[in-house]
Hints:
The structure holds two protein chains of two kinds. By secondary structure, chain A is of the alpha+beta class. Chain A has 15 helices and 24 strands. In chain A, the strands form six sheets. Chain A has a seven-stranded mixed beta sheet with strand order 16-15-21-20-19-17-18. In chain A, strands 1, 2, 3, 4, 5 and 6 form a six-stranded mixed beta sheet that branches. In chain A, helix 4 runs antiparallel to helix 5. Residues 562-567 of chain A have low confidence and may be disordered. Chain B is α/β, with parallel strands linked by helices. Chain B has helices at residues 2-6, 10-20, 32-37, 62-69, 71-85, 99-114, 145-152, 182-194, 196-199, 234-241, 292-296, 315-329, 335-355, 360-371, 379-393, 395-404, and strands at residues 48-53, 89-94, 130-135, 177-181, 203-204, 207-208, 210-217, 223-228, 251-255, 264-265, 269-273, 279-283, 305-310. The A-B interface holds A 49-55, 57, 86-88, 90, 93-94, 112, 115-116, 118-120, 122-123, 152-156, 158, 178-179, 197-198, 200-205 and B 139, 156, 158, 161, 163-164, 327-336, 338-343, 346-347, 350, 357, 363, 366, 369-370, 373-376.
Amino acid sequence: MISTNKGETVSIVLDGEEVEVPAGINLVDAAALFKKEIPHYCYHPQLSVAGNCRMCLIEMGTPMRDRGTGEPVLNDDGTQKIGWVPKPVIGCATTVSPGMHVKTISEKVTDCREGIMEFLLVNHPLDCPICDQAGECRLQEFATDYGRGYSRYVERKNVKPKRTRLGPRVTLDDERCILCSRCIRFSQEVAKDDVLGFVDRGSYSTLSCFPGRELENNYSLNTVDICPVGALTSTDFRFKMRVWFLKELPSICAESSAGCNIMVSSREGEIHRITPRRNDDVNDSWMTDSGRLLYKQVRSDNRLLKPQVKQSESALDVAISSAFESFNGKKLAIVGSCHSTLEELYLLNHLSKATKAKKYLRGHFGEDDGILLSADRSPNLRGTLLSGFANEYPKEDLSKLNDDLKKGVVDAVLVVNEDLLDSGVEGESLLGVPVTYLGTHQNTTSNLAEIVLPTLTSFEKKGTFINRSFIAQGFASTIPSPGGLLPLTQILCRLLSLSDEESKITADFSLIWKNLSSPPKSPFKGMTFTDALRGSLQIDGSKWNNLSFVEKKALHFEPQSSVLSSK
Amino acid sequence: MLKKSLTKKPEEIGEEVLKSGVRGRGGAGFPTGMKWKFLDRKSGKPIYLICNADESEPGTFKDRQIIHKDPHQLIEGMMISAFAIQAKQAFIYIRAEFFEGAKILERAILEAKEKGFCGDNILGSGYSCDLVVHRGAGAYICGEETGLIESLEGKRPNPRIKPPYFPAVLGLYQCPTIVNNVETLCNVKHIMEMGGENFSKIGKPNNTGTRIWCVSGQVKNPGYFEFECGALTLGEMIHDVCGGLLPGRSLQAVIPGGSSAKVLRADERFQGTLKDGTDFDWGIEDIPLDFDGPMAAGTMSGSGGIVIMDDTVDIVEAMANVNAFYAHESCGQCTPCREGSLWMKKITSRMCSGDAREEDADLLLSVANQIEGRTICAFGEAAAWPTQSFVTKFRKDFLAKAKSQKRKKDSMQLI
Lengths: 567, 415
């Protein structure tokens, strides 16, 4: 486990070199800090230490002290004598201590690794050609380094179940399993759904679900990610794509305000899977199963791909100017979206100023699972506040817009992503009201809208989301956008320049961030989009402490104390 | 004796045990007083005492006799020990197969409770300690103390990694725990009775007290025998105590301390210097039966299970039998033992079924070397030592097996 020490360090001797490492960490992590890999299977930095694979065996010694006097025992040359532990020790369960000597490279260590590799492979089916893990398999990798290249094993291999359905999304091949217990520990410790265990013993041990139970929690696919071999496979991804064909690009999950860091794997513009990306401040190495399915929206049947004016396809330029004409001079209502990026919201706010429009916003809320699916099911609610688009907490509907439409306070609507009819706006309130819809997918609002401007999914655009802990996380596009479409930022800029010919605002992200960070009390002071892309930026959100955010205590998230006390 | 002990300070009992020099009778021979000293008494957590009655080492049957014939000796020893470490709860973890023993113990505990020897306010001293019998479910690995603790907690008996889970600090329910063998705990009673000083005069220095030896195999009178440590040699045990070998047979091999101890070949000679500085030059029959004697001969007295094999034994089949046991009993938690023990079993089984190859001897040795010292618990050594010693000491038997080539249809059925 990564320790939470207060910046204390200890000095150890790693392969003859004296180095400073954080106190309390284990030797696998300590060696990794100096680009030395201690191979391991069962150890995972965010799970408890099991120490069962024995791959991380290394040599360790500590400075010797006289048992009676406590005085250091010295060599002839005056240096302190090192008492090497006669047996090799496992790096994952050995915590650094001052003066500790470690050998990660030695004849004995190599011999241990070769021995373990041979043992792991004797009953392994060696079916790499049909295994999904091939190409990202720790067994393959370490077999290259420490494998024999031939087998001394002439006995019959153990036979185990080849395709067990562990749950709706996970399929298990028991023959490939090396019994590292990562999945069991994950289910117990992170998902808090203890359903996995071993049955039988010795080499016949088999991973299995408890009788009558299934691995069906919303985190089940993380077991597939952490499985170091091809035993646990994603039923969705199984046999679909060779991993070496996949292009992996980082992004941010848009499922909820947790803001999981993700890796998007695509081939030729088509996403094949989404996996979590480690961020110890946000999601550790985990994400929800439901978040992994979001990529299916990219190519779903109801995706909007062509601009439309009055229900017929149109050129994008024509659609944009028609949109402007439809609300020009009218009392415009702009419905923003908590699914938009910070930059989009910033521009939308400017558009509302230029058109003197009234702003509306709704939230999307659900159950909080206390882990990585927060009650706020939108990625950027805090971005609506920080961009200046909103300054109060949104309700779950747009009934205020309905009232205003009925009263005639507004008589044109520009809506981003939201489905008005699903948000408490009555159909008759919209009669005769020109609606411009900017969104990725078809819905009842897009069906009745006068102008439809298709926008891009979070996989196809760049931007910034601000998560529940006020951490700003930038992301770039991971796949090319469908032909002929523009990002929402550019559409908004065009509408802005049509509304205000003086407007100097462009869709240049560095300029948007410059503007965001320039006000004297800006929470973005000194930050750029490049910073946000590079890593998590902690934003000071104390200004909104009085708002009743819906999120509950969860992984790396504490609700604001003031909010708690006000409840 | 319990009454007298309860009037002492708990630390005084610990001191007496330390003074007595008594070593653990479970197999490792670790000084009991020292083990108690490691106990974390300052944690503020409850302290537990566990009696390890999971006697499952092949060749060993001493604890069963104590439990069957004198359960109250164990209960008394346990209550004194529990008082010494200030445990409020004590367990007897008994192996599943000892259902008779479990019944006897349960009845004995009821009797002891009636007389106030255990339970609440023992003999009016104000000290209370409950004692329960917990039956295992049938696994050798439950004899490993951390595996036993896991099993007692209701989990799979996967031994824990050490560090950090030393039972004396993080044992049962993560509380300080002492696990002692049946015979060891019985000794505590005698230590208190005669005083640590006097107890240490029995046997030899560093090998104090008596030991129960379980002799099985091809001798006229197999059985269990209690002797002072070092009072007799292996030869005396075989010939004088057990009545010698069967007529017309000659000694081929001896396993001196349960199946995991390294085997001794009848014509081996052992030379060297003992810890006390005396030189020795022993044949197999000269090895003194204590802790240090077998150790000096490169093996161990382990749990005291002596297995005698005469010249009619097929060494490879004996090896196959031992390997089948360890492959069956490996818990499967860590890689070397899990895969290695089954691999060795498969090799020796194949050799016995007529498909032996000349390279098998070296392969067996290499596999065993890849297990030893690399596992979570001592099971790795327990599985590797027999193979290492059998193959090195009886190499020609293994090679002969390969040469004979003929298929033996009547070879023993292996598990």
